[in-house]
Design brief:
Helix content: 25-40%
Number of strands: 7
Number of domains: 1
Shape: globular
Strand order of the largest sheet: 3-2-5-6
Protein name: Lipoprotein
Order of helices and strands: HEEEEEEEHHHH
Organism: Treponema peruense
Largest sheet: 4 strands, antiparallel
Number of helices: 5
């Protein structure tokens, strides 16, 4: 009888907790220094092509993401040439300086086919995104960096710091 009660209690605890949950709700903030009058279009590499729209005065939002899996989040405004961005779990605050690195990540996800998307995401989880963001922040305008060369070197697995270079 004790054994039965123990098993019932254990099964109740396991079924009621978030033990089996495969995603987590992550709160993001858009840098308050960002000016916007027309609203935000939020894109995530977790679900590319399915934007989230926010009002111009909304600076906070939540996304359901895989825990600790790298995810690029981009915020576009009307008339803005470049998005604000963040790479989770490195940061959850979208800003202009991290927009370039997040766009590189998002581009790599978009270039993958449906057949190899899981493999690409797994590969990108081993890349040092924190270091790339740190290096890109050293530039006054990281959008002047050679994004195509950077994407190619990361995709081919040959990336080195010297691949971060200005457009020619």
């Amino acid at each position: 009888m004790r054994k039965l009660i123990y098993i019932l209690c254990l099964s109740l605890v396991l079924s009621s907790c978030e033990f089996w949950k495969t995603t987590e709700s992550v709160e993001f903030s858009i840098s308050p220094a960002s000016k916007n009058t027309g609203g935000w279009k939020i894109l995530s590499s977790e679900v590319p092509g399915k934007p989230l729209y926010l009002a111009a005065d909304d600076y906070d939002f939540e996304l359901e993401l895989q825990p600790n899996a790298f995810t690029a989040v981009l915020a576009y405004t009307d008339g803005s040439a470049f998005p604000l961005g963040a790479i989770y779990p490195c940061t959850t605050i979208l800003n202009a300086q991290d927009g370039f690195a997040a766009d590189v990540f998002y581009t790599l996800i978009n270039l993958s086919s449906k057949e190899n998307a899981a493999q690409v995401k797994e590969y990108l989880n081993y890349f040092n995104w924190q270091r790339l963001m740190t290096e890109c922040r050293k530039y006054e305008n990281p959008w002047n960096l050679d994004k195509n060369h950077l994407v190619q070197s990361i995709a081919s697995g040959t990336f080195k710091l010297s691949d971060i270079r200005m457009l020619e």
